[in-house]
Amino acid sequence: MNYQESREYIDRVTREIPSVLGLDHMRELMKRLGNPQDDLKYVHVAGTNGKGSVIAFLYSVLSEAGYRVGRYVSPTLYSYRGRMEVSGSRISREKFAAYITQVADAITAMTKDGYPHPTAFEIETAVAFLFFRNEKCDLVLLEVGMGGNLDATNIIKNTLLSVLVSISMDHMSFLGNTLSQIAEKKAGIIKDNSHVVTAMQKPEAMQVIETACAKHHAHCTVADASTVPVIKESCMGQTIRYDGEDYEIPLAGVYQKENAVVALNALKVLNDLGFPTTEDQRKEGFKNTHWNGRFTVICKKPLFVVDGAHNPAAADMLAASIEHYFKGKRLIYIMGVFADKDYRSVIQKTAHFADQILTIQTPDNVRALPAEKLAEAVREYNLNVRAMMSIKDAVEKAFAIAGEQDVIIAFGSLSFIGEMTDVVEGIKNN
Q1: Which of 352, 351, 370, 353 is nearest to 361 (CA)?
Q2: pLDDT tier at 366 (50, 70, 90 boundaries)?
Q3: Which of 6, 35, 177, 404 has the CA that lies 20 to 30 A from 340?
């Protein structure tokens, strides 16, 4: 397969093979590929909100320190191949196509032997393991797709460090209807005699994590962001003081302090596990961290912010950031959501801040909620809402009604932020 054919193959599997949680198919697939994942060392990251940000901090610092670091994340905003990177370079089209071909051949043999067809995420994860092994990575930063215990990434054995970011209610149809049930799934990445860093969790989640650590004889570090002051901040970034040193972070949002403190605690643990970093490397790495779509400013006049808030906990964080940075400002929203998310809670927590709300349908996704249906849900909380035909229409309308001092905020899903950013850039350049 060439690159176009490999992408079409993934798209076809996405449409035809439903998501499942379980490791049997993945284990069989990786066995047929020679178990490349067993030749690597990992930082495994699970939780509800903050996984990508923590990985972004770690990736930047460890790369700054000279380590050959692999990063596996999803979804990505601008480039599909950005899901898997090594030291700042995305997997090439040629290598991706070659690995997909190798994996597809193994799957053909699997299905002939009576095994079910792996999912798209399992295929992508298999490609990532092959890529990272062949690139001879010193360390791989691995983001869980969903949950933890039964996620395809959890076939790994050589976990140096498990990281648990903030855990809240999401994916309930797969993970459970209580915070304890969800936390139990997330804590399933903890391995025997390993190390764990966790954000400060709600009591029911923390209890589950502590129990899992005790069961596996894992050493647990709790990253308490409440003791870390913010020295300077704006909607463009912030500076925090950790262990007496100032760290400049180019990521805004009140929640990024917690993610940064989790990452700094993780770096402390990694220091003792054979991956030391200097203070200068940590500061420079934090300063140069990039992670788009998390309270990211993409235009300054008027201020245009994009954020991936798509569940109730993320909506709480977005609401806190709005109150923190934009109190008294006139706000215009662009919202697009997936139908299988708790979007009514997201609306309830955020709609009252907005002067006007424009709804869109997230493009090219079977899970997308139609713009008019989303507008109907919004009307229960804010009457100034209008369904738009496209992302382009919504952006143009938002610019038309916004004054220079107003703020446009687009949120609800990460899936449309890449296209929206391109539209905004096009308008800015005309």
Answers
A1: 370
A2: confident
A3: 6
Question: Using one digit for the tens of pLDDT, what is the confidence trace for 220-268?
Answer: 999 999 999 999 998 889 999 999 999 999 998 888 999 999 999 999 9
How many helical (H) and strand (E) elements, i.e. helices and strands, does the chain have?
15, 17
Distance (Å, rounded) from C-alpha 13 to C-alpha 8?
9
Q: Which amino acid is at 82?
A: G
Give the Cα separation of 154 and 138 in Å (integer).
Answer: 19
Backbone φ and ψ for 385, nearest 5 degrees, come out as -135, 145
| Element containing residue 343 per DSSP (H, E) | helix 343-350
Strand-pair category, 42-46 with 407-411 = unpaired
Q: Cα 22–25–29 angle (5° rounding)? A: 140
pLDDT at 21: 73
116-127 pLDDT per residue, tens = 999 999 999 999
- For the chain, the structural domain boundaries read 3-287, 296-428
> Model pTM?
0.87
Q: Which fold has domain 3-287?
A: UDP-N-acetylmuramoyl-L-alanine:D-glutamate ligase (3.40.1190)
In b/e form, how buried is each residue of 300-338, taking b as 16+ CB within 10 angstroms?
eebbbbbbbbbbbbbbbbbbebbeebbeeeebbbbbbbb
Q: Which residues contact 113 (CB under 8 A, 6 or more apart)?
A: none
> What angle do the packed helices 93-112 and 120-134 form, to 10 degrees?
120
Q: What's the CA gap between 25 and 106, in Å, rounded?
A: 12
- For residue 430, is pLDDT > 80? no
Phi, psi angle pair for 368, to nearest 5°: -65, 140
Q: How far apart are CA 122 and CA 273, in angstroms?
A: 29
In this prediction, residues 54-59 reach a mean pLDDT of 97
- Class (C level, CATH) for 296-428: alpha beta
C-alpha–C-alpha distance, residues 72 and 129, integer Å: 9
- Same-fold call for 3-287 versus 296-428: no
